[in-house]
Each structure stands twice: as C-alpha cells, then as structure tokens.
Amino acid sequence: MSDDFDNKENLEGQDKVQSFLRLFSAYQHRIYGYIMSLVGDWNQSDDIYQETTSVLWTKFDQFVSETDFLSWALKIAHFQVLSHRKKVNVHRKYFSQQTLDKLNEVAISSGSDSEASLNALRKCIELLPDRSKKLISLRYEDGATVLKIAQRVQQSVNTLYKEYQKIHTQLFQCIRKQMVWK
What we know:
- By secondary structure, the protein is mainly alpha-helical.
- The protein is 83% helix and 0% strand.
C-alpha cells in the first residue's frame, strides 16, 4: 500500500515539474527582460532572475493553473526586485517606487496583448499561400539565411527579399485586422 502512495506522490511530483518547466520555459526570456528593464545591470539582473526562479518554483503550488502564468511570474519578479533593492539600498540610483509600480502594470498588461498577437500571427500564417508558409518556415523555424534560402529555391536574393517584404506586409495587415476584431 505504501508503494502505491509513493508512486502516486512521485507521479504528481513529475507532473508538477513538467508543468512548471513548460510554463517557465515559455516565459523565461520575458521574465528576465522585465527584471533587466527595472534594474539596468546585467549582474544584478542575473542574481534577481535566479532568486525569482527559485521563488517561482517554491511557490508553484500556489499558482492557479487557470490564471496567467506570466502575470503571476512578473509579480513575483517585481517583489524580488524590490527585495533586492532593499538589500543593497540603491533606491535612488534607479527608479522610484511609483515608476516601478507603473512598469509592473505595463508589463503585466502587455503579457495578454502579446499572447493575443501571437495567436493572431498563428491564424494569419495559416491563411498564407503554401509557398509563403514554406518560406516563413525556412526563414524562422529552420533559421536559414536569405542567401541559403535563395539558393535552395533558385531565386535571386533580391527577389526573395521582396517576397519576404510582401509576406511580412500581409502578415502585419492580417494581425492588425485580427486584433481589431478582439
């Protein structure tokens, strides 16, 4: 009986780890960028980021899965920045508390906007002709240079740049329309 309990507890622990890693890896760059925007120093940002990551993991049981992970993580990062500032007593060197609060509001509200933009981008890419989808895939998923793609599709680099410009314009217009409808 205790083996069943231990196995169930182990599976729940694995699910927790997987859930955390999935969510955290999706937003880790945004969290770090947010910290860096408040602190402005790479070394301090690295320290605060590590502290934030630790707190996120420690408090992950308190995260409600139906809510916005990025907003929750940015709030924790915000408090870690404040805590770090108290430790090193550098309040006057950077931003006032009021400015920090405003930056926090903007960062949290932009989280849902960027998610909506990303969803709109996905829909708009699906609407592209097959050739355009393939070119987007080659450039952004495979990370190939325009020169290599031009050689692969047997076109001049100039022609390919013009085609990418046209695709980007189509995507931009489509995303704007998608965002207006929301």
